[in-house]
Amino acid sequence: MNAPIRSRHLKRPRQSRQHYRSIDKRDQHYELLKSQLAASAKTPAEYDAAVRQAARIAGV
User: Does the predicted model carry a pTM greater than 0.70?
Assistant: First the structure.
C-alpha cells in the first residue's frame, strides 16, 4: 500500500530576497514610467494608452 502524499512535499520553495527586490524595482520602474507617460494625457483614452505602454516597457 502506498503512503499518502503529505502536503509539505507539495509546497513551493520560498523565493529569495533577491527575487522580491527585483519585483520591487520593476514595480518602481513601472510607476515612474506611468506617471511620466500619463502626465501628458488629456483624455481617458490617452491615459489608458499611456498606462498600457508603461506596462509593456516595464515588463509588468
Answer: no
